[in-house]
Write a structure and sequence with these properties.
The chain is globular and about 45 Å long. It is built from five helices and four strands. It has a domain of 100 residues: Roll (Nuclear Transport Factor 2, Chain: A), CATH 3.10.450. Strands 1-2-3-4 form a four-stranded antiparallel beta sheet. By secondary structure, it is an alpha+beta fold.
């Protein structure tokens, strides 16, 4: 049993073990429990998404096709010679995602994404996620130009 499992998951597993039953994938099922009662994405969930989405060098073709809003895909398609999702022309050497802020009344969360380049230069932009998007996806970016 994972040390990070919640008490209800641990109790269910203990009861199942006492009855001689096995539970498959108990920990992943616990990970789907939402911490926001209204079903909105939390700051922690948005941070995990953005960190996974951007990785170290930018989103994969699959992520670009399936984890980006239609609105942003359209904007990116009309941006020649520039990768709008990275706010850059080239592939960065490193990417970090800052603290996520959520605005419940606006239904959006955002974080500063910082890209690292050769020679130690950095550049930042803001990535936005709708709190109620299911599945979670990148809604927009602001390159600050």
């Amino acid at each position: 049993m994972s040390r990070t499992a919640s008490r209800p998951v641990t109790a269910v597993a203990a009861c199942a073990a006492a009855l001689g039953l096995t539970l498959a994938a108990t920990a992943p099922a616990a990970a789907t429990v939402r911490s926001d009662p209204a079903g909105r994405h939390t700051a922690a969930e948005i941070h995990r998404f953005l960190t996974g989405f951007y990785g170290q060098h930018g989103p994969t073709p699959h992520q670009r096709a399936h984890q980006v809003s239609d609105y942003l895909k359209d904007r990116a398609a009309h941006t020649d010679g520039y990768d709008l999702l990275l706010c850059a022309q080239n592939t960065p050497r490193a990417i970090t995602v800052g603290t996520v802020t959520t605005a419940q009344s606006a239904g959006v969360g955002w974080a500063t994404v910082t890209t690292g380049w050769d020679g130690g230069a950095t550049r930042s932009f803001t990535a936005y996620v709708r709190l109620e998007s299911h599945p979670i996806m990148l809604q927009d970016v602001d390159c600050g130009q």
